[in-house]
Backbone:
């Protein structure tokens, strides 16, 4: 089981000493450090800063939203950062949801599976650099020759040669069809809040995965002397995503929790959150679910939980920074010791 540091996206201000956190993760033998984006900080700029101050740890986006960048723009950034980091980039992508895509990026959220397939095909063409890129899809066209164009678009090929033509690409996916796409067309998968013993809900899709397929799962880690209090951070995250990251009609994260066997609890959490009763929504998250997605308890309990994750299909556990820089360093050191 490999370890990673999930820095997420920034809140109202940058994550404290994030470059130093990545350096220490590298010192402790962590395999990857991941950043993400929502509608504030972007995923790539912090990685560029980390790349300049580290030498071994992989650099992942978890997740880069494909509506934020055309396939060409993402390929240009990936080629650049892969050169800067000497081949350490792992590109994690995802479609996000209709609230962000339509509300923030001003694009229609239509046929996300089709959009992902087309996006990936163009991205791979650009990195292959075998010929000028030509693509005629339902959602992307290169060159663009549809109604309203100048009819002067030219098929182009990247001026810069990629350091690697096979930059690993991981997909953040939740629905069975999306997970199947990850297994068949990508190099890895970021699941959402899936307990170690419930990956069976995706067994058909995962049966199709290629050799060396990566599965990177986020977990909350704490050795707090009060295990109940230690579950509160993961409960807050679950309540936010089940209740607030999506609408009543369309919430992909809620569906995953339902698949994991917590349909009634997920419905209650969402109803409370949407009614403005966020604190109650947090407390409605079942202890059993929060505990399954946490490395919480004594050192012996930590070892038992790591053993359960080792028995799951997950290949990497990503832990988020703790409430303070010092506690994050302590957590990384303990986890690195126990994982070996």
Residues:
């Amino acid at each position: 089981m490999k370890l990673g540091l999930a820095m997420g996206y920034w809140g109202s201000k940058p994550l404290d000493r994030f470059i130093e956190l990545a350096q220490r993760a590298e010192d402790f033998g962590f395999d990857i450090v991941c950043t993400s984006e929502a509608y504030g900080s972007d995923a790539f700029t912090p990685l560029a800063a980390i790349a300049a101050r580290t030498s071994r740890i992989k650099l992942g986006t978890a997740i880069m939203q494909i509506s934020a960048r055309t396939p060409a723009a993402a390929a240009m950034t990936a080629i650049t950062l892969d050169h800067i980091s000497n081949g350490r980039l792992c590109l994690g992508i995802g479609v996000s949801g209709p609230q962000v895509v339509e509300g923030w990026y001003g694009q229609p959220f239509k046929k996300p599976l089709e959009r992902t397939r087309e996006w990936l095909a163009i991205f791979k063409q650009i990195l292959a650099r075998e010929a000028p890129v030509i693509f005629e899809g339902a959602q992307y066209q290169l060159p663009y020759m549809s109604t309203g164009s100048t009819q002067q678009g030219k098929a182009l090929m990247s001026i810069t040669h990629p350091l690697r033509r096979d930059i690993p690409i991981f997909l953040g996916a939740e629905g069975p069809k999306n997970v199947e796409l990850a297994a068949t067309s990508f190099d890895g998968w970021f699941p959402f809040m899936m307990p170690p013993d419930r990956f069976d809900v995706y067994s058909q899709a995962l049966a199709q995965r290629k050799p060396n397929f990566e599965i990177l799962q986020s977990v909350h880690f704490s050795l707090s002397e009060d295990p109940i209090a230690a579950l509160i951070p993961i409960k807050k995250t679950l309540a936010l995503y089940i209740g607030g990251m999506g609408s009543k009609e369309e919430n992909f994260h809620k569906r995953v929790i339902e698949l994991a066997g917590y349909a009634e609890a997920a419905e209650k959490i969402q109803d409370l959150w949407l009614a403005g009763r966020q604190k109650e929504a947090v407390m409605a998250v079942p202890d059993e679910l929060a505990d399954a997605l946490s490395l919480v308890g004594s050192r012996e309990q930590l070892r038992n939980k790591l053993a359960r994750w080792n028995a799951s299909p997950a290949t990497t556990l990503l832990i988020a920074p703790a409430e303070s820089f010092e506690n994050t360093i302590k957590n990384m050191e303990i986890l690195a010791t126990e994982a070996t």
In short: The radius of gyration is 20 Å. The mean pLDDT is 93.
